[in-house]
Amino acid sequence: MLWNVSARQILACYGNDLQVFIRQHLNPLKKWGKTTVPESERLQSMSRNRSEQIVRMWDQIRENLPHWLWVQRSVTISGTMSRDRCWPKGSVLLIDVSCHSVGKSRTETRKVLPPMEFSQIQANFERATTEIGRVLIGQDELVEATLVALFCEGHVLIEGAPGLGKTLLVNTLSRIVGCPFRRIQFTPDLMPSDITGHSVFDLQERKFTFNPGPLFTSLLLADEINRAPAKTQSALLEAMQERQVTVDGIVYPLTPPFITIATQNPLEQEGTYPLPEAQLDRFMFKLLVDYPSAEQEALILENYIKGHDHRRLETYELHPVLSSEDIVNIQRTVVSVIVEPAIVAYITAIVGKTRSWGAVEIGASPRASVSILLAARALAACRGRNFVTPDDVKQLAPWVLRHRLRLNPEAEIEGITVDRVILDVLDAVEAPQP
To answer: Which of the chain's ends, N or C, has fewer CB atoms near its CB within 10 Å?
Structure first.
């Protein structure tokens, strides 16, 4: 079943009568019947005010949609036809729409799969970690946490010394999941338009055309993010939080899946711009990369002896495990993972404890609780379960909380670390019993 409707068609057919539209087209969908949108002529020209009216009306419609509809909105006020569609969860659809993507008209066909079984999610997760482990040796926790963040639409901040495989992880992950990959090397002179894209005047067409920047990808590596100025960091923040890019007043949505994996070097601080707390809080995880053991480093050297080269990943003969559609399907499936009230109380108790802990000056915000909840559901699905356990929360807590806590000066002088505080908080909060 396909239900495809644009904001222009709504306005052309029904004007401002929102209730008529809901009664004739949204209510029949509750019976899983076939509903089609009446044909209407496209409006040839629309003023800016009229376009804004359409956007407001479409927002009203989204607020009245039943919770079981999955909705994706892409409305611009540039005067071009944009894509607005929604369909019931679990439907197998073939979508054939004419749309505008970053200023270019195209037609796409995309298959929306039914929810994936949890056993299949576990199998795909294990296959992905195995394939990545053939290239990135000795960083199992880093690989696992990155995949969990990808499955719950979270962003990752990786901190570690140079040469430990941060860039290699993202490059390998892009081949395993079959998603586009772009890398941005942040520098002090990097401007927002360098990452978002810019409009260029076409002399032949006599109009401005938008050239998308490296933000328009699925896997984005923001290398040494703390070297970029604040204005460029704010442009990245919009893409991370809103999944969209605004250029010249026009909003360009990013195609899912989209994840930002940022890195920063803790050893060198000269010429850097420390990330503000508001931007740090947007990262779901902060992961620490440590040196491999002697045995693991020997395996890295053996790979080179066998002819494998990290600079040429084709020598590893990696096999794709997932596709972009599979990742989006997993992201929709993990929402159905069961979270018992006892687990919710456990999460809130942990986060609340950080706000009253003696060594902590600033505790975690409610966004930390939300991040633990979302990540716990994804981790449970990766374990093949449809429910969250306290062990899932304990494993995720250091990843989620270590960049959200600020210790007081006395604790720092005594040499207390954030990870030590998190472990003490977990020991102080009693886990729910099964």
So the answer is: C
Q: Where are the beta strands (DSSP E) in 7-83?
A: 69-73
- What stretch of H or E contains 237? helix 230-242
Q: Which two tokens stand for residue 12?
A: 């052309």
**What does 153-191 look like in DSSP terms, one character per residue?**
T--EEEE--TTSSHHHHHHHHHHHHT--EEEEE--TT--
The class level of CATH for 119-328 reads alpha beta
Confidence class for position 108, pLDDT limits 50, 70, 90: very low
3-state secondary structure of 14: helix
- The answer to whether domain 337-428 has CATH 1.10.8.80 is yes
The label of the residue with tokens 């018992």 reads 340
**CB contact set of 305 (below 8 Å; sequence gap of 6+):** none
Nearest to 124 by CA among 291, 352, 395, 331: 331
Unique residue bearing structure tokens 């197998």: 92
Please give the pLDDT value at position 306: 86
Confidence (pLDDT) at 388: 95
Cβ neighbours, 10 Å, residue 19: 9
The separation between CA 90 and the C-alpha centre of its own chain, rounded to angstroms, equals 21
4: which DSSP letter? B
Percent of the chain as helix, strand, coil, to the nearest 5: 45, 20, 35
Helices (H), 281-415: 294-305, 324-333, 341-356, 366-382, 390-401, 409-413
DSSP state, residue 317? -
- Could you give the angle at the alpha carbon of 202 between the alpha carbons of 196 and 207, nearest 5°? 85
Contact 184, 287 (CB under 8 A): no
Distance in angstroms (rounded) separating the CA atoms of residues 130 and 135: 9
pTM, entire model: 0.71
Q: Is 317 left (phi over 0), alpha (psi -120 to 50) or beta?
A: left
What is the per-residue burial (b if ≥16 Cβ within 10 Å, else e) of 217-229? Answer: bbbbbbbbbbbbe
What are the structural domain ranges in the chain? 7-112, 119-328, 337-428
What DSSP designation does 210 have?
E
Q: pLDDT per residue over 219-265, tens digit each?
A: 999 988 888 888 888 888 888 888 888 888 888 888 888 999 998 87
Other CB atoms within 10 Å distance of the CB of residue 108: 12
